[in-house]
C-alpha cells in the first residue's frame, strides 16, 4: 500500500461549491484521514463546519455586493447571479413565511403583506427631527436641453423599472417626449412631491439558509 501511494499520483480534491477554499479542502482531507480516530475526527469536522459557514457567508455577501453594483451598470446579469447564489437545489423556497407572532403564513396575499410589513419596519425612520422641504425658495427651472443631455448620457439596453419604459422609447418620442419629461421634473421640483410610482422599489428576498421562514433570515436586494 505504501509503495502504491508513492507511485500512484494523489488525486487533488475538487471543490464542490464555489465558496470552498483550499484551506477547507485540506481540512476535509485531514478529516478523511482521521476516520479511525473519533476524537480527532470530530475536532477537525467542527473546524471544517466553522470554515465552511464563514467562507459561504463571505461569498454570498460578495455576490450580493456585485448584484447591487450590477443593478446600476449591468442589470442584464442580475438574475444570473441571483440564480448562482440561490441555486436550484441548495436554497429552495419553503413557500411560507412566519408572521411577527411566529404563526406560519401560507396564503400568498398574506405573505406579501408580511413582507411589506417587514420592509416598512426595516426602513423605518426613527429620527426625531426630519428635514422637511419647505416651498419657500425659488430656483431656475429645469431646461429641456438639460433633460435632453441627461437622456443622451443614459446607456441603452438597461432593465426597465415598474413602468416598463425603456430609455430608447423616451428617445423615440424626441422633442415631444423630452418636453413631457421636462414638465414632470419641473412639477416635482416646484411642489416637492414625488409621484408614488417613482417611489416604489422591487425587492428580491434571498434566503440565507435552506428552509428559511423568517423574514430576518433573508437578504433583501432592491432592483
What is the strand and helix layout of this fold?
Blueprint: H1 2-7, H2 22-33, H3 38-73, H4 78-86, E1 97-98, E2 104-105, H5 108-122, H6 144-153, H7 167-172, H8 174-191, E3 203-207, E4 218-222
Antiparallel strand pairs: 1-2, 3-4
Structure in words:
GO terms for molecular function: RNA-directed DNA polymerase activity. Keywords: Nucleotidyltransferase, RNA-directed DNA polymerase, Transferase. This is RNA-directed DNA polymerase from mobile element jockey-like. With 223 residues, this protein is mostly helical. Among the domains are: 1-90, no CATH class; 144-191, no CATH class. It has 8 helices and 4 strands, in the order ααααββααααββ. The strands form 2 sheets. The chain has a two-stranded antiparallel ribbon. β1 (97-98) and β2 form a beta hairpin. It is elongated and about 80 Å long.
Summary, kept brief:
One of its GO terms (molecular function) is RNA-directed DNA polymerase activity. Helix content is 50%, strand content 6%.
Number of strands: 4
Low-confidence region ranges: 1-9, 88-92
Number of separate helices: 8
Helix/strand order? HHHHEEHHHHEE
Distance between the termini: 58 Å
For the sheet with most strands, the description reads: 2 strands, antiparallel
Helix content: 40-55%
| Outline type | elongated
Quaternary form: single chain
Q: Helix/strand-derived class?
A: mainly alpha
Keywords: Nucleotidyltransferase, RNA-directed DNA polymerase, Transferase
Protein name: RNA-directed DNA polymerase from mobile element jockey-like
GO molecular function, one term: RNA-directed DNA polymerase activity
Amino acid at each position: 500500500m505504501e509503495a502504491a501511494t508513492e507511485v500512484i499520483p494523489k488525486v487533488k480534491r475538487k471543490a464542490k461549491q464555489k465558496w470552498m477554499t483550499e484551506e477547507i479542502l485540506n481540512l476535509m482531507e485531514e478529516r478523511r484521514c482521521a476516520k479511525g480516530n473519533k476524537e480527532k475526527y470530530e475536532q477537525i469536522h467542527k473546524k471544517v463546519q466553522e470554515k465552511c459557514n464563514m467562507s459561504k457567508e463571505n461569498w454570498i455577501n460578495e455576490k450580493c455586493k456585485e448584484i447591487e453594483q450590477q443593478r446600476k451598470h449591468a442589470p442584464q446579469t442580475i438574475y444570473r447571479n441571483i440564480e448562482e447564489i440561490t441555486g436550484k437545489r441548495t436554497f429552495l423556497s419553503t413557500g411560507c413565511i412566519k408572521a411577527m407572532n411566529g404563526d406560519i403564513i401560507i396564503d400568498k396575499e398574506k405573505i406579501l403583506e408580511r413582507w411589506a410589513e417587514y420592509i416598512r419596519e426595516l426602513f423605518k425612520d426613527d429620527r426625531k427631527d426630519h428635514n422637511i422641504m419647505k416651498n419657500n425658495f425659488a430656483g431656475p427651472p429645469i431646461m429641456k436641453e438639460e433633460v435632453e443631455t441627461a437622456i443622451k448620457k443614459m446607456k441603452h439596453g438597461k432593465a426597465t423599472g415598474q413602468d416598463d419604459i425603456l430609455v430608447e422609447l423616451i428617445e423615440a418620442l424626441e422633442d415631444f417626449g423630452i418636453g413631457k419629461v421636462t414638465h414632470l421634473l419641473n412639477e416635482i421640483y416646484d411642489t416637492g412631491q414625488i409621484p408614488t410610482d417613482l417611489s416604489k422599489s422591487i425587492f428580491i428576498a434571498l434566503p440565507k439558509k435552506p428552509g428559511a421562514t423568517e423574514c430576518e433570515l433573508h437578504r433583501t436586494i432592491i432592483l
